[in-house]
Each structure stands twice: as C-alpha cells, then as structure tokens.
Predict the structure.
Amino acid sequence: MTRPAPSIAGNTPHILTTYREALGSGFDECMSADGTVRPHWQPLLDSLDDLPFAERTDRARRMDRRVRETGIAYDIFADPNKLSQRWQLDLVPIVFSGEEWQALERALVQRARLCDALLADIYSDQKLLRLGLIPPELVFSDPAYLRPCQNILPAAGPLQFYAADLARADDGQWRVIDTHTETNAGIGFALANRVVHTHVAGDLFKSCNGVRLAAHFQTLQATLTTHSGRENARIALLTPGPHHEDYFSHAYLARYLGYLLVEGNDLRTKGSQIYLKTLEGLKDIDLIVRCVDGRSIDPLELDPAGFDGPAGLLRMCRKSPRLVVNAPGSALAQNRGLGGYLPQLCEHLLGEPLLLADAPRTWLGEASGQSHVRDNLDGFVIRKAQEGTGRPGRAALGQDTRALSPDDRHDLEREISLHGARLVAEEKIGFSTAPVFTPNGLQPRPFAVRLFVSRTHDGYQLMPGGLAMSVDPDRAVALTAPDGHTRDVWVLSDAEQAPHVSLWRPTLETARVQRSQRVIQSRVADDLFWLGRYSERADWTMRVVRSALRRVEEDGGPATGRRAARKCLEMLLAKDKGFKPAGAAALDDAEIERLCQHLISGKKGLRTLDRTFSGLYRVANLARDRLSLEAWQTLSKFRPGDSWMTTLANATPVAVLDLLDEGLASVSAFNGLMHENMTRNFGWSFLDMGRRLERAYNLSEAISTLFVPVTGPEEESSSLMLLLELADSFITYRSRYRLDPMLALVLDLLLLDEANPRSLAYQLIAISQHMQTLPDAKQGVSLPEDRRLILALLTSTRLTDVEAIASDTDRTLLAKLMDEHLDGLPDLSNALSRHYFNLMDDVPHRVQTRSEPLTRSETKP
Amino acid sequence: MILDVSHKTLYRYSASVVHSQHLIHMSPRLTPGQTVRHHSLLIEPAPAARITGEDAFGNPIVTIEIEVPHKELVLHARSTVETSKATSVDFATTTAWDKFDHVPTAEMLRNDLDALQYRCVSRLTTPSLEIADYAAQSFTPGRPVLEGALELTQRIYDDFTFDATATDISTPITEVFKARRGVCQDFAHLSLACLRAMRIPSRYMSGYILTFPPPGQTKLQGTDASHAWISVWSPETGFVGFDPTNGIVAADEHVVIAHGRDYDDVSPISGVLIGGGEHTVSVGVDVTPVP
C-alpha cells in the first residue's frame, strides 16, 4: 500500500481539520476516499479558510437572521414554537463542477422531455398503455390521473416545469429519488435561499465564479410571455392562498417575475373567457402559472371540494389548452411506480437510452412485484406511489417493514394485495455527505437536492442552482428535512460571468411588469383596507392604554385625569358582552389597571389589543405580496405567540408602558414605510382610507365619551389634556395657543382644522379625495351611496360652529355632530365594501343532489 | 319497451344567486340496449350560455351558465327511450373471475383498455379489508365472473336494508357496510368496491327504473326517482347491468343516463354558485311505459 497522494490544489484547509475523521463509509462530495479535497471544492474552502473565525460564525448568524426576516418559513400560521417549522440556511453550499453539472443537465432535460411525451400520450390516445409499456392500472389507479383532462393538450407540451430530487447513492452515482411534475415545486425557496446567501456571502460566490440564477428566470419570463400568445400578457400565479405551506415560495416567485399572485376566487369564468376580478371590473388573463393541485382547479368538473381555481376553468383549457401551465393532470408523471418502466419508455418515446435511473422502486400493482416484496419484506419501505405534494423537505415517510410484528406484517401483506396499485416498495440507496458549517469547523452531513427544469424557447433548461436539504438517511429515500436545514447549490463555471445580466431584459418586459402591478384584485383592496384599519386601531388602543397607565403610575396627576382615562377605557370595552365595568365606587387606580389588563390580553373583546394585533398580522399576511420586506419586518412583534406579545400580557403596569412605547414605534415605523414606499395606486387608496376611517371614528368616539354630557371645569380640563394626548396634538396646540386647553380651541384643532393631520376634517377630506380617484364601476344617474355618505359627513363637519358647540351647556349640538359620525362612518365602511369588494360575490360553493330514495314497496314484486 | 321519463328538479335559494354554472347529466345515453327517440331539457331562468357535449366517458352533458340573479332554478328533462332486453346470456359460460390476471393480456390491452379503468378503485369505491372479505365469499376459485356478480348483487339485496334516513351524500361505504343500511347509490358504490377488490371491471350506472305501485293502488305522479345501479364486465358479454337495490339483473326497465367510475363522474346536476344562501331542492321523476 502506498500513501495517498497529497492534494494537488494545496494543503487541506484548516477548516477541514476534523472533517476527515467524521467521514463515514459513503460517498463524500468534497473529499475523496483518500482524503484529498475534490478540486471544485477547493476555491470555496480556501475562501472560507481565509475568513477569520469570528467572521465565519458572525456570517452564519447573519444568515440565520436574514432567513427569519425574509420569512422563508413553511407555514406562517403554524405554531412558531415548533422546531420543525424552522428553516435554516447553511453558510456552506453544495458545489458542483461545471462538468458534472452538464451531465446532470443532459440527464434531467431528457427526463423532462420524457415526462412531457408520456403525459402527451396518456392524455391523448394512450398508445403507451395499449402497447403494455406502462401498466394501465398504474395510471388508472392514480388519483392524479384526471380523466376529464383527456385531450387538453397544449401545443408546446403539457410540462412547463419539471423538478427532480436527487441523491448520490453509495456507489457514487446520482439517482432520481422523486419527480415533481405537478407545479414548479418550491422553486421560490431556492431563489430566496440564493438571495439570502448572496446577501451574506456574495463575495464567496463571486470568488468561486458561481453561475447566477437571473438569466434563467429572464429566459423563463420571455418564454412564458411567448407562450401566453400576447406581448403585453397579463400573467398570474395561481396559489391556494396564505394558509398553504408553500405560499412563501409562490409569493416570492410572483414578485420576482413581476406576475400577479391570485387565488381561485380572484378569477372568474364567463362565457368562453377567463377574467381577473379587479377594482376596475373584470380584466383578461392570458396565462396562469398553476401552483395548486390539478384536481382542485375546477370544482365543477374535478374534485367537488376543490376551490383553488374558478369553476369552469377546465372548459377554458379545452378551448385554449395553453392557458394553464403545467397543464392540469400533469402530476401523473411523478408517480413513483413509473421508475422501473422509464428505461423502456425512454427508448420508445425518445429513441435514447435513459441517462439517469430512478432509485430502485417496485410498483406493487402486479402479482410479480407483490410476491417479490412479500418474500423479502424486511428489505423494503412501503410508500404511496403518488404523493401529490411538491413541498420541499416534507415528503411523507413510508412504512418501514423491518420492525413489523407478525400481525402488522399480515395486515400489510393484505393491504398490498388490495391496494398495491397505489403503492411502491423502495430499497435504501444511501446518501452522500457534504460539509455543513459548525462552530467547530466543517462536518459531513447527508443531503439530497432538488433541481429545477423549465421549458424555454430552446427546449428545457436546468436552473443553475437548486435546493439542497439535510436528510435523515434512515427515514426514507426522499427529500425529508426533519430539521429544516437547507443549503444553497452552486454551479461553478470556467467561463467569465456576464456582469450585467439585467441588461438583457427587453424593454417591453419591463413595461409589462409595471402595468400589471397597477391591477388590484378586489380581494387585495379589501385586505389593504383592513390593514389600514387594524394598524390605526392598534395605534389608538395602545395610546389609550398608555395614557391611562401613565396617569396611574405617575404621581401627582389630578384625580380627574384618571377619571377621564377610565372613561375612555370603558368606552373601548363597552360593546363587549360579558365584560362588566366596576361600579363608580371602585377606586380609579385599581379599576384602570384591571381595564388595561383586559384590553391588552382579553381574548373575547372586540377591540382588545390581542384581537387587534392578530387581525393586523393576519391581514398583513394576506396582503403580504404588496408589502416591502422592511414593512413586513416591523410587524413581526404582532405575530401571535411572539415573545413581545406574551411579555406584554404578563408584564407589570410599569413594564407595560415601556412595551407599549415599542409597539407604538413599530406601528408608526410600519405606517411610515408604507407612506414612503407604496406606489400611489388603488391599493394605497384603500390602505389609507382604512386608516383615515378608523382614526375619524376613534376620535369622534373619544370626543363624545369625554365631553357628553357636560362635566365640571376640573374634569373638562383633564379630559382636554387627555384628548390632545391621544390625538397626538398636544404640541401643536401648545405652540399655537400657549394656553391651557379650552374646549372651543381644542375642538377647532381636532374637528375642523383641515391642516391638522389628526383632525376629523383632515381624515374626511383624505377619504373623499381617495374616492374621487377610484374607478366607478357602477355608474348611474344618482350619486353612489359611498359618495353620498362622505359628502354628508364632510359637509356637516365643515358647517360646524365650534363657538356655538362649546358654549352649548347641555352639549346637544356636540352630541348630534358626533352621533352623525359614529353612525355615518360605519355606514361608509360598509358602502365601500359593497361597492368595491363584491361582498355579494362571496365564496362560490357547490350543490349536488343525490339519487333520490327508491322504496322497495314500489318496485317490481 | 318504450318509456317516457320526466325528471324535474327545482332549487329554491334563500338569497339571490348572482351567478351559477352547472354541469348536467340528465340526457339519456345511447347504449346497445337503448335508443333515444326524443329528449328535451328546459331550464328556467334561461342560461346565458348553454353548451351541449360529451364528458370523458361519452355521456351526454349540458353545461350552463346563468347570469341573471335568481332565487329559483328549474331543470326539466323529458325523454322518450326505447329499451330492449339483452339477448339472454348464460352467466355460467363467462370467464372465471380469477382469470383476469394482474397483467392484462396483449389482446385485452388492444381491445378492452377502456374496461381496465373500471377495475381501479376510485374516491367513493375504495374497499376496506372487511369489504374485500365480504366480496370474496361470492368469488370462489374458478367461478364465472357474472355468476359471482349476480350472487353478490343478491347478497347485498338480502343483507342490506333500504333506508333513506340512514345515510347522506357524504356517508362513506365503510359506514354503509357497518350499518347495513343505505340507498341505491350506497349499494351501487358498495358493490363496486367489492368487485374492484376482486379486480373485476365494473361501472357505476345512473338513470331511472320503471316502478310499479303496491298491489291495489294506482301509481302517483312524481313518485319515481333517479336510480343507481352497476354493470359488470366479462370478455364474452361486455358490461351487463346488475341492480343490487332490487337484487336483479338490469333489463329493459332501467333507463341509462350515464356511466362512470362512481357518482362523482355522473352526478345529475352539479353546480357552483355565487350567492344563494341556503337551498332546498325538490325532485319529481315519472317513468311511464308508452303502450
């Protein structure tokens, strides 16, 4: 035996000192069996080695933070404390040499062509089944085979997006361990990972001469535009909505490509056309990038419970098969049972040998497969042939047959003979390892990788990157990432990288992107309107609680100040059933603390902070593709279960004051970011109208509560102070009058002063101005109700005589004015909803009749 | 036999339906034993669009879209069909059920690919192990397939009680099997689950049956109903109808509207509505022999 030759490229980097000892017997990506570093890893390892230790750990930390801030989580509504929900991105990517990548690209492009040809056959004349090249029952038993989609064949082919999960087996060969043909399978996650990674370690990427992703997506954009058949196409990404685990990926991709993100209910079929419901009425849609399961895209013809697409979509597809990509029904090609048949199919359909094999799996729909597995049951994992989900890292685990009791084994055998057509048996193949970053240097960990193929003008193209995930090799031959640990995928290039890829972008593309963003779905307008209302409500309620607690905690204030604050708190809780304010005899201090506690954490109240924050977070999520990353980040503390929220609920009154200051700062940061960054389109109008309407209402309510009926001069003075504080107008008042607050002057400032952004008149004018810019879809002879209401409110405010109101000792005038607003503003909100959000147009639902009973007495004897 | 069929469905909605689309299976299909002499479908209010066509199983369908707000919808199908008894088949001469090997022969693939899809389980016909055991009793080794099918049909007729209140449209067959109660649709699905557990091609049939009043009474208007039964395949005969609700072989008293893998494929009226609130539905069916 001779000693292995030392690495040609130089010494083993320090960062790998302990790596070799930790290596197992399997294949390692970065180090060959003799301990030499594979050449294509050398540049990365050298660059890492050059970084000081502290810098490396700091970068790993920044990566973590960036991932959190970007929001690359699976499920935003899931329990945030569950560890498995976390998404981590390693500092160390998986590196591919250009040469190896080219081989993979050839193999995966061939795979995509194969799946495309297979689908085109199954959804037309099914020659492959007639010739016995695919067992018919494999297809017919697959719930992903959508019979009503028969003959929906886009001229370009059914498959626009293809993805494969790959693992390198112990023998050093790559194997396809899963195929995804339903949707683009989480490509947005891979994109987001790259963006985050570049942000923290772009210098490493550059020094390794990695291939950028942008060109791939630009080609994709151009291809989809051509595919849609129109130069200024309106293209939409169809998502199941924010509750879906991959929503992040959908939203990220839509924003990156400049496409609209729509849900089923945003679309509507009418006659032979499909439309998008927008504020300006129905608009044409030219192409739908489908990110929902094929079987739930049309409740009329497919899964009756599937409302992820509009009823009648399949009819549109028959008329125009290119409307939806991937074509509905495409998930059939990802059936795991097909693996064993692919070599013959490839020869038959493409006339080529299959370049890359599947991990060995046996379809259990045939007697021969069943008996083979029955005889060797201990060596297999039994899994569903069709999983349907493209969720990265969440492949279901199969049933491991090794640990079965004799009874379970018997049941499994029967299950196989009964439902074998929907099952496969798989053998373990092993996973190769690659380095991950740890504070103690790099350590080898097994992984699998998802690679993405898209159709372009020049045929299929492999995205030069991917999504690698650390897997537990004992669990399944699939992309299961139990701890959410992911890695970027780099492809090294020998060629010089084009520095300004973005220059390739044709100018027409840019124009299209800008225009499509002006279109606002009615649903999004509704969400933004409520986002405005909730953010203002949160701001106001926090101010009321803060003012009240300040009056309790700060000694020396007058008792009348506490009484006024208590009135405001009681007002906010007034409509809550089951909440009883203490009698007048209760001490103000204790009662204020009790009321504040209830307003903060009461679960049932209509206007408690708990409820307002969760409403705010929810609608912000719904409108998330319209928010900038920064704006989104400011709201993170309002996420249900966030530590800020739990601390607030349990804090002492003094601590609450500090926490509320933080909360108020976040809301105003959010408002500021929206104000500065949001395009002044209809979406902005609805956001701002929501905020103005809420503010006008809260102000009217506070004035009414504090000054009707009339109180003593001491108390009135305290009430005026409180009102100025709540309306954040104390400084304005002081600088203008240098007097103690007087009712007439305060009312002038807060009701009539059209220059004061906190006044009632200012809010109404702002709303009125927004309404004038809105499209008026329902033009008629008379003024629409919403226009009439705002005109009435604004007029009555402008006609108000504050002198008269202030000197009116029984406050009838003030009460009348405030009541007009307290009635009129909710009416206005409802009228806007009716006018623009199509409340009549509620969620579609399906009706069916069942076969009516037939009684036996009536039948033939 | 010549039969007149009148099938009237009335939907009443508590709130206006703003927009609706319906997929309708109410027109009889042509079969070897059935010709359609006349058919009309009246829809009120008048649809903005009405498309006649065929579904993926070759059943006639009508797709409609209604754009006027409405609180009532009437669909009235009238058909005159001529049915004939199939030439009598000796079930004992049909292929043994266990000859349908797991791997279909080249001949079967060439000629009968379509039949193979009907031996795969579907959403509403997935057998449990218990159902498979129940089915196996009728299919002893070597037994001719239609002989076994007839026995199974009769066993279900004997073992199960017709009970319109026991199940609803969402009751799974595993519960029907436990409760031993249900309606024609349940028995059809259960029979299909049994046959498909034995890997025998079998279809869900939707249509009507001519009924007779109890002795001494006259038949009342509108007392008939939609009906569901099954058909079972053998290489010798093609698909032959069996009616587990009545324990009989389907003959010229059955009028076929559509066939499919299960109810999902052939539901008489499925609609997606916007608006409408709560709805009630009343159905009147009359099947009358024409002398």
Chain B has two domains: 2-84+267-289, 91-264. The domain at 2-84+267-289 of chain B is CATH 2.60.40.2250 (Immunoglobulin-like). Chain B touches chain A through 78 residues (CB under 8 Å). The radius of gyration of chain B is 20 Å.
